[in-house]
Design goal:
By secondary structure, the protein is an alpha+beta fold. The protein has 19 helices and 19 strands. Strand 12 and strand 13 form a beta hairpin. The chain is globular and about 80 Å long.
C-alpha cells in the first residue's frame, strides 16, 4: 500500500516514484509527450482524479518565439485528457519573473500573443485562468482535482536552470526570495504531476535574459516535482543543487524515499549553461533592493513588436544593453562587460543600503520571509526549550552589571547576555497592549519575518509557535564589511501566569548562515508596586563578516569587549524604547512596507537617466576620438568611428556654423546588426532637439528627490 508523509514524500517500503525521460531524436513533440505520460502511468492517476484539471505552463515569454512552454504541447495535453474522459480542463496563468516594466502583459493577453488559441486543434475549448496570488495561493489552484505543472527546459541567468520547482514561483506571493515562494507552493499545494518541455529547449550563457533555442527532442515527466528536476538538471550536465530554488526544496523536503528514473540521463550535446561568474554577478544584481527589479528591464531581450517597455529611460537602456547580453556566448568582451555591469550595480546598491542602515533606517524596505522549516516537525522539542536555557541563566545571574545594567560573558564562543528594566506602567495594561508572543518583533533593528502557531490554549493564546526573524547587521557598521542581515528560524514556547508572562526560543536554522546560536527568553512580570519589569536573556553567536575573519579578534580582548559592550547596550536601549512605543500605540518598527514610496526609488531613476545619457554619448563616439575607439572595442562593434562607414552621409558646415547633411540612404539598403545596435542608442535624442536641456532638468529633479525625499514632486 502506498502511503505519504504530509509533505508528499513516499514512505519507506512504498512503490517507487517514477520519472520518465522520453527522448527520441527527430520525433515529433506530441509523440514524446505521449511516451512520457505512458512511462509514468499518468492515465492511472487521471482515472483516480475527481474535480477539475488545472495546467500551469511556463508563460515567461519575452520573445514570443521562445522562452516558455510550447502552446501546442499544452493544447495536445488538453486533447489527450478529453480523449480519456476529462473535459473540465483549464490553463493557469501566473508568470514567475516580475515583468511590470512591460506593456501588454495582462494575464489574458500574453497567452494569446505567444500562441494559445483558447481552443485546441481538435476543437476542445479551454479557459485561461488568472492564478496570480493574493495573500495566499489562488483558490483555483488549491481546489483543483489534478494540478499539472508543465515547465520549460531552460537555463536561468542567476539560478542556472529553471524547471518544475521554479515554475511554481508565480503561484505564491513574492514576499522574499523566489525559493521561498516555490517552497511554499510545494508545501501547501504541490503539483500532482510534472512535465518538462524539452522538445526545443532554451539554453545559453545569458539564461532567460536571452534564451537560445536548441533541439533536444525530450519530454520529462514525474509525479514528483523535485525528481523531475533532478532528471532535468542531469540532462543539462548540472548539479541538481545548483539552483537556489531546488537546493532549498531538496534540503527542506528531499527526494522521495523510493524513486526510479527511466531513460537517458546523459548531458544534451552542444548544450551551453550559464557560466558561474555570470550567475554569481547576476545574483548579486538581482538581489539589490533598489536596482534589482528595475535593472531586469535593462538586460532582458524583448520582442518589441509584441511588448513595449513602460519607462522611457529603461527602454533606452534596454536598447543599449540587450545586444550585449545576446553576445555573451560569442564575445568575451561582451561577457566581461555584462559581468562588470552586474557587479557595479550591485555594489552601488550595497553602498546605498549601507548608508541607510547606518543613518536612514526609515528608507529600508521591511521584509516578509516565510518559514522554511516545518514547525510541526519539532513537537518533541518545544517542551525542552526553557529547560535548556537554565544553566546559562544561573551562570550569568551573579555577574555584576555594567553601568547600563547589562550583564554578559563568553561561553563556548557565544555571548550570554542578560538585562532588565522596570517601567512605571501598570502590568495588566502592559500585557494587554504589548503581546508577549510578539516579543522578538519588538526588538531593536527587527526588519521582518513570519510566524506560525503550532499550539494554542483555550483562549487562543499561542503556547508553541515557530518564527522566522530578520534583523539588521549587528553591530550595524558591519554592513560596511560585507555583513549580511541576521536571518534565523526559531521554535518558541510561551507561558502565561497571573503575575508573569514569558517566551523562550531556540534557533533551529539560519537560511543565510548568519547565526550559529540565537536562543533566549523574554519575561514580563509584575513588580511589588504593580509596575512592569522586562527581563531579557540571550545566548548568541553570529557569523563574522569575511573581512573580520582576517584576524582573530579574541587576541585583542579589550577591543572585542568594547565592541560587544556597545552593541548590547544599543540593542537593549532600542528594545526598551520599542516596548514603550508599543505600549503607547506609536510606530516602533524601522523601515517601510514594500508598497510604500521610498526615497530610494529616486536613485534608480537617477542612475537610469545618467546611463541613458552615457548610451547616447557612446553612440556619438566618432566625436570622442580615442575614447570613442575604446568604447567601440568594449562594445564589440566592428564600425570604425574615426572614419565612419562607407555609405555615411556627407556633411557640410556653412559659414554660420550649421551642419547640413545629404539625404539618408535608401530604405532598401540593409543596415548591419551593429548599425541597428548603434541606432537603438540614438533613439533617445531622435525627436528631441532640446535633449540635453531636458536631460539636465531630469537629473536636477532626481537629485532633488534624493536630497529632499519629503519635498514636493
Amino acid at each position: 500500500m502506498t502511503t505519504q508523509t504530509r509533505n508528499g514524500r513516499k514512505r519507506e517500503g512504498a512503490e517507487p516514484v517514477l520519472a520518465c525521460i522520453a527522448h527520441r531524436p527527430g520525433a515529433p513533440a506530441p509523440a514524446l509527450l505521449e511516451a512520457a505520460l505512458e512511462g509514468c502511468d499518468f492515465w492511472s492517476l487521471v482515472a483516480r482524479t475527481t474535480g477539475p484539471v488545472l495546467i500551469k505552463p511556463d508563460l515567461d515569454f519575452h520573445l514570443t518565439s521562445s522562452g516558455g512552454t510550447e502552446p501546442r504541447l499544452v493544447e495536445h495535453l488538453i486533447d489527450l485528457l478529453h480523449d480519456h474522459g476529462v473535459a473540465d480542463v483549464a490553463v493557469g496563468e501566473a508568470r514567475n519573473e516580475p515583468d511590470g516594466w512591460l506593456e501588454d502583459r495582462p494575464p489574458m493577453v500574453v497567452p494569446e500573443l505567444v500562441g494559445y488559441r483558447f481552443k485546441t486543434p481538435r476543437g476542445r475549448a479551454y479557459e485561461v485562468v488568472d492564478l496570480r496570488p493574493g495573500e495566499g495561493l489562488h483558490e483555483r489552484w488549491v481546489a483543483a482535482g489534478l494540478r499539472i505543472n508543465f515547465a520549460k527546459n531552460r537555463t536561468h541567468e542567476d539560478c542556472y536552470f529553471a524547471l518544475c520547482a521554479h515554475n511554481l514561483a508565480g503561484l505564491a506571493p513574492r514576499e522574499g526570495k523566489v525559493e521561498d515562494a516555490c517552497l511554499r507552493v510545494l508545501r501547501e499545494a504541490p503539483p500532482h504531476f510534472n512535465l518538462i518541455d524539452a522538445c526545443i529547449s532554451a539554453h545559453g550563457g545569458a539564461g532567460h535574459r536571452c534564451p537560445k533555442p536548441i533541439d533536444t527532442c525530450t519530454v520529462i515527466a514525474s509525479a514528483d516535482t523535485l525528481l523531475a528536476d533532478w532528471a532535468g538538471a542531469a540532462r543539462m550536465g548540472l548539479d541538481p543543487y545548483a539552483s537556489p530554488v531546488n537546493a532549498a526544496a531538496l534540503r527542506a523536503i528531499g527526494l522521495p524515499a523510493a524513486q526510479r528514473i527511466d531513460g537517458d540521463m546523459s548531458p544534451y550535446p552542444l548544450w551551453r549553461n550559464v557560466h558561474p561568474v555570470m550567475a554569481r554577478s547576476a545574483r548579486l544584481r538581482n538581489a539589490s533592493e533598489g536596482l534589482g527589479d528595475q535593472s531586469a528591464a535593462w538586460f532582458q531581450a524583448v520582442d518589441r513588436t509584441a511588448f513595449t517597455l513602460r519607462d522611457f529611460y529603461s527602454d533606452r537602456l534596454n536598447d543599449f544593453l540587450a545586444p550585449l547580453i545576446a553576445r555573451v556566448d560569442e564575445s568575451p568582451r561582451s561577457f566581461w562587460l555584462v559581468v562588470a555591469l552586474n557587479v557595479l550595480l550591485a555594489r552601488m546598491d550595497r553602498l546605498v543600503h549601507a548608508q541607510n542602515t547606518l543613518f536612514a533606517k526609515e528608507r529600508l524596505r521591511r521584509r516578509r520571509a516565510p518559514l522554511l522549516i516545518d514547525p510541526r516537525a519539532f513537537t518533541k522539542d518545544y517542551p525542552r526549550i526553557a529547560v535548556a536555557l537554565e544553566p546559562y541563566e544561573q551562570l550569568i545571574h551573579h555577574l555584576p552589571p555594567n553601568r547600563d545594567g547589562i550583564r554578559w560573558r563568553h561561553v563556548d564562543g557565544a555571548v550570554v547576555f542578560a538585562a532588565e528594566h522596570e517601567f512605571p506602567l501598570p502590568f495588566t495594561k502592559f500585557v494587554q497592549r504589548v503581546d508577549i508572543c510578539r516579543a522578538i518583533q519588538y526588538m531593536n533593528d527587527y526588519i521582518g519575518g513570519s510566524t506560525s502557531i503550532v499550539r494554542a490554549d483555550a483562549r487562543g493564546r499561542p503556547l508553541w509557535q515557530a518564527e522566522r526573524n530578520l534583523y539588521l547587521q549587528q553591530p550595524n557598521w558591519t554592513v560596511l564589511l560585507g555583513g549580511d542581515v541576521i536571518d534565523v528560524e526559531k521554535i518558541q514556547c510561551l507561558r502565561y501566569e497571573r503575575a508573569r508572562q514569558s517566551i523562550w526560543w531556540r534557533t533551529v536554522a539560519s537560511p543565510n548562515a548568519s547565526a550559529r546560536i540565537d536562543d533566549g527568553r523574554v519575561s514580563f512580570s509584575r513588580t511589588t508596586t504593580g509596575g512592569t519589569r522586562v527581563s531579557i536573556l540571550a545566548r548568541q553567536q553570529f557569523t563574522l563578516p569575511l573581512a573580520f575573519k582576517a584576524f582573530d579578534i579574541d587576541l585583542a580582548p579589550h577591543l572585542r569587549d568594547a565592541i560587544i559592550d556597545a552593541a548590547y547596550t544599543r540593542f537593549f536601549t532600542g528594545t526598551m524604547a520599542n516596548l514603550q512605543a508599543a505600549y503607547e500605540g506609536r510606530e516602533h518598527r524601522i523601515g517601510h512596507d514594500a508598497g510604500e514610496a521610498s526615497a530610494r526609488r529616486a536613485l534608480p531613476r537617477f542612475l537610469a537617466t545618467a546611463a541613458a545619457a552615457l548610451a547616447e554619448l557612446l553612440r556619438q563616439r566618432q566625436d570622442l576620438g580615442g575614447v570613442g575607439d575604446l568604447a567601440a572595442w568594449a562594445l564589440g562593434s566592428k564600425l570604425t568611428p574615426a572614419t565612419g562607414t562607407a555609405d555615411q552621409a556627407a556633411a557640410l558646415t556653412d559659414a554660420a556654423g550649421f551642419t547640413h547633411f545629404t539625404p539618408a540612404r535608401a530604405a532598401s539598403d540593409q543596415a548591419t546588426p551593429d548599425e541597428h545596435f548603434i541606432a537603438g542608442m540614438a533613439a533617445l535624442a531622435r525627436d528631441a532637439p532640446d535633449f540635453l536641456q531636458g536631460l539636465a532638468q531630469a537629473v536636477h529633479l532626481d537629485l532633488d528627490r534624493v536630497a529632499n525625499p519629503g519635498g514636493a514632486g
